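Input chain follows. Return structure tokens only.
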Amino acid sequence: MSLTRISSEASLGQFIEATGAFAGSTDSPVFLLQYSSTAWGIERLGGEPMKWFGHGAPTQVFEARVFGGGIDTRWVKRGIGGDVTCWVDDQSCRSAPPFSGAAVTWNDVERLSRRYLLWGSVDESTRSGVVLSDGRVGRYEIPVAGEGRTVRLDAIEHLAPSVDGNAVVVTECLQGFSFER
């Protein structure tokens, strides 16, 4: 199994447009997360528009992530544009990646599954997902439907052999969401 990192430059608008086109070419759900200093937002690409959570309206987005369908793509603001890093897992990506540019490939990569519990319990289901709530973080909606009391963020940690024979973590790629009862 191999893992490829593609580095490129793009504006936030170009990043969202390219990853939106990728989302339309895969059968897997693809999600967009955006972060600003005051709020964060999430949407399922091709679904309902972005929902923002936090204090006040988002000012300037400083990071965005698109994940699912075998990719985990990050945009980080740099000056008036941004840097894009696209991780492509050849075991789960069945479509052409949304970006081209300088590429580095790791071969013989080991994959370890990870699952992270999201804050809150499922409060209600909506037309476009589920609402989680917790006293510490309030209420927020995740754009994925399912059954269970808790939601987990699924990820794959990619390990590759180093020159001294040890394993090193190349990256951790977000995959999607799952439910537990």
